[in-house]
Amino acid sequence: MKSLRENSIARRYALGLIKALKDEKEYRKIKAELESFLKLLLSNDEFKAGMETSLFSKQQKLELIESINKEVGFSEKTFNLLLTMTDQNRLAILDLIILELEELWFERNNIEKLKVYSAVALNEKLEKKLTKKLEKSFGKQILLEKEVDKSLIAGIKIQQGSIFYDFSISGNLRKLKDALLTETAPAVSAAASAKEL
After folding, report:
1. Does residue 196 belong to any structural domain of this protein?
2. Domain that holds residue 64
3. pTM score, two decimals?
4. Coil, helix or strand for 50?
5. What is the pLDDT of residues 37-68, one digit of tens each?
6. How many CB atoms lie within 10 A of CB 101?
């Protein structure tokens, strides 16, 4: 688990990058490039250890970044960020920087990312209708992340960060069951007390 200090440093890097971005196209390109580099980093334990610790010298690390850049052709801003992070020995927080980058981009552009769980895959018409309703409710542009959850029976469940809104049949049945248990609990307790008398 990353520390608060690492989260704070990651946010500073992401903020610096956000300020330099021209538009959404550039944001998507740079985010994708950083994610592809992170994937490469995570795919080889020796490479990851070398780049994130003192196993490789700073010069070796910078040469490796330059070599990878020659192969894949990163955009200038991605390449400069990776060089800076390598020079300051911060590659271990690249995953946090990517998360912060997305969060800051959404904040800057008034976008709310929501996760929608549905019993069956949403078709395009339903997705558009739901997005429109959610945009009206939240007063923001909505970005939907979809996932099928067959345990829902029917309906949907929406996740906003750590908050869940349950509009599924299974969720309503659960609420009904809880309500019935709450209502019958005092009656059961009273009956038990009467029996004791």
Report:
1. no
2. 4-107
3. 0.72
4. helix
5. 999 999 999 999 999 999 999 999 999 999 99
6. 24
